[in-house]
Automatic annotation (TrEMBL):
This is SpoVR family protein. The lineage of its organism: Bacteria, Pseudomonadati, Pseudomonadota, Alphaproteobacteria, Hyphomicrobiales. Residues 14-436 form the SpoVR protein-like N-terminal domain. PANTHER family: STAGE V SPORULATION PROTEIN R. Pfam families: SpoVR (PF04293), SpoVR_C (PF24755). Residues 440-494 form the SpoVR-like C-terminal domain.
Length: 510
């Protein structure tokens, strides 16, 4: 039945702010009542293509300090856009409270409704409820912190000069991939807890004291080992967050330089959950906009023409070329995420016997909303795929697993979408989304601050993959610039601990 024009939220392609407000309110009402979404208050902003390009250059944030790399990125994106090499996103959303959503002024009204549901409800809910964002980001404070960062760096440029600030920013930007905490750190002990631990340690030493130990000869080697162990314990080594260690312990940095490193580190940490949840985040937003638009159509709030336009844009977003298609550039997170969400809904409401065997806890339970809400809150990409990728979806995507051995001339198809291959394919796909497993594991392992101050880093080599020589040497120069003394990097086998290679800044030409 055609929708009654009297009940339509909009007609035609033109939009104005009153229509945007009405559409948002109608979408939010359905999202909260039907999908049980929990969102931050939303702030909608309309921007031009030039402003969207500017947002791309400044990592999508409305406030950002100045750096030459942002300008370079802007010019590159602008060139691609002007020559038709890339399009622009229909929207941009900020993980903040209120949640800021940028809408392109070129969008039609139907497209504005679609991207409002996608960003202002889907992404918004995911930002507010996923455990990684709750653990690592402060949505209420990020905008004020960026305002502080922009103002602080501008004042540093006035006081210390552009070149001096740029030198620190260059080094910090080069290290920001190694400037995040990947795991929750234990809370700091209160002074009372520290005193209690000291008392307990002294009491234990008194109880376990034996005068016979006094007669044993002193070992210089064991004393050095003990000093090294105590030194590492005091500095909380090994330390995975290189920028954090440099900020807190570098003997060469002035206070203003430490604060700049902290700014880069805090912003890098803010974006870390987004790298871990791209499939889930985009899948959640796509599932939400697709479900909400169909609900509104069923209620007669949008017309058939508007729905067809929305479905056309939706199909473009979730298009997945085959592996042998010239357009293939990897797995589309929108497509995989949406299929995973829809497959969960199918398993919960219309399970097969295969689904009951693989997912006994949720198959046929009926409440697909609760299952999805719990999954969006509790998982990241790696665990979500490992938990919910079904054999039916593996068959639909025709997934297969390649074994690539360097000493063999050809690839080997190790597993295909059949009974024997499901587990291996699911595990391999999940592992490919494990951010920590697919980035270099580099840690600070030792430094004697009272001695030569030689900073020792360690790279745990997995599957024999070493760091690229030029990149490694350039990065070590940046570390030395921030540390001020000799820096070395030992590459060790992650399994055996054997040293494979060792490189020091003294070996690198200036």
């Amino acid at each position: 039945m055609p929708a009654s024009k009297a009940r339509l939220l909009f007609s035609g392609s033109d939009w104005d702010f009153r229509k945007l407000s009405q559409v948002y309110e109608a979408i939010e009402e359905v999202a909260v009542e039907e999908l049980q979404l929990d969102v931050y208050p939303t702030q909608l902003e309309i921007i031009s293509s030039e402003q969207m390009l500017d947002a791309y250059a400044s990592v999508g944030m409305p406030l950002m300090y100045r750096h030459w790399s942002f300008g370079k990125h802007f010019l590159y994106q602008e060139l691609l856009y002007r020559k038709g090499g890339r399009g622009l996103a229909y929207e941009l959303v900020i993980n903040s409270n209120p949640c800021i959503v940028y809408l392109m002024e070129e969008n039609t009204m139907a497209l504005q409704a679609l991207v409002t549901a996608h960003a202002a409800l889907g992404h918004n809910h995911f930002f507010k409820n996923n455990h990684l964002f709750r653990q690592w980001t402060d949505a209420a404070m990020i905008l004020s912190y960026l305002d502080f960062a922009k103002d602080y760096i501008a004042r540093c440029e006035e006081r210390h000069g552009l070149a001096a600030v740029e030198e620190i920013l260059d080094a910090a930007h080069a290290l920001k991939e190694q400037g995040v905490f990947r795991y929750q750190r234990p809370p700091k002990l209160s002074s009372e807890q520290q005193r209690k631990e000291v008392r307990e340690r002294l009491e234990y030493e008194e109880r376990s004291y034996n005068d016979l130990w006094r007669t044993l000869p002193n070992s210089r080697e064991s004393s050095e080992d003990q000093n090294q162990a105590e030194r590492k314990k005091k500095l909380n080594l090994p330390e995975e967050n290189l920028l954090y260690f440099l900020e807190k312990n570098s003997p060469a940095l002035e206070p203003w330089q430490r604060e700049i490193i902290r700014i880069v580190r805090v912003i890098a940490q803010y974006f870390y959950p987004q790298r871990q949840t791209q499939v889930m985040n985009e899948g959640c937003a796509t599932f939400v906009h697709y479900t909400l638009m169909n609900m509104l159509f069923d209620r007669g709030r949008i017309s058939e023409g508007a729905l067809l336009e929305m479905l056309s844009n939706h199909s473009n977003v979730v298009f997945q070329p085959g592996f042998d298609d010239p357009r293939f550039s990897g797995i589309n997170p929108y497509a995989l995420g949406l299929d995973l969400m829809q497959d969960i809904k199918r398993i919960v409401t219309e399970p097969t016997q295969e689904d009951r065997d693989w997912f006994p806890d949720i198959a046929g339970s009926g409440d697909w909303r609760r299952v999805l809400l719990d999954a969006w809150a509790d998982h990241r990409d790696e665990s979500f795929i490992r938990q919910f990728l079904s054999p039916a979806l593996i068959r639909k995507w025709r997934f297969f697993l390649l074994a690539d051995c360097a000493d063999e001339p050809n690839y080997k198809v190790a597993s295909i979408h059949n009974e024997r291959g499901y587990e291996k394919i699911r595990s391999a796909l999940a592992h490919s989304y494990e951010v920590g497993a697919n980035r270099p594991d580099i840690q600070v392992v030792d430094v004697d601050l009272l001695g030569d101050r030689h900073l020792r880093l360690q790279h745990k080599v997995k599957n024999g993959v070493l760091l690229e020589d030029k990149s490694r040497d350039d990065t070590l120069r940046h570390v030395k610039r921030l540390w001020g003394y000799e820096v070395s990097l030992a590459s060790v086998d992650a399994g055996t601990g054997a040293t494979i290679a060792d490189r020091a800044t003294s070996q690198i030409a200036s």
